[in-house]
Amino acid sequence: MKAIVGKKLGMTRIFNENGTVVPVTLILAEPNVVTQVKTVEKDGYAASQIALVSDKKIKKPQIGHLVKSGISARVLKEFSLTDFAVGDKVDLSQFKVGEKVVVSATSKGKGFAGTVKRHNFHCGPKTHGSNNYRQPGSIGSAYPQRVVKGVRMAGRMGHDKVTVKNLIVAQIDQVNNVIFIRGAVPGPAKGFVSIWSENE
User: pTM (2 decimals)?
Assistant: First the structure.
C-alpha cells in the first residue's frame, strides 16, 4: 500500500498528448513523516501513522504524542503501511502517472438546509395562495404516534467525510510536490486530503 496526506490547492486543466482537455485537481503533497508504527504483536494490527508537517501551533496532547518523532504536525492519518520506522519520509515518488487512487476528504459544509435542497423534495404549487411551497409536508401518521427515525428532514448539510475511488493520477510535479488528479476531489481549497492506493 502507498499513501500520503496533502492540501487541496484547487482545480485547473491540462492537455494530454492528443490535445484533449483534462480537468484536474491540484494537491500539494509535501513529504510526510512517519510519527508512529503499530505492530501486530503490540497493537493487534500493522499500520503506520503519517503526519503533514506544520509550523502552526498545535495542542498539548499532540505535542506529547509527537515527542518521539520530534516534529510539529496538526494533521495525522493512519494507513496500512509496513516496512517503515518512526522518522521516515513518505513522498510522491511512490505514485505513478496513470495509476488509480482513492481520495478521502471532508466535503464543503453548506449549513442548515431545507428538504428541497438537502433531499431533492418537490415544491408545492406556487399559485392560488398556496402556503405549502417549500414545506416538508407530513412527517408521520396516527401510529406509532411519533416521528419514525430516519425521516428525511431539514438539517445540517455537508461537512461529511467523502471517499472517491478510481481517480487517476494525471501528472506529478516532483519539484513542487504537486500531484494532479483527474476529476474533482471533495472538500474546499486549502482542505486536507488523504490519497492512497492498494496497487504496488
Answer: 0.86
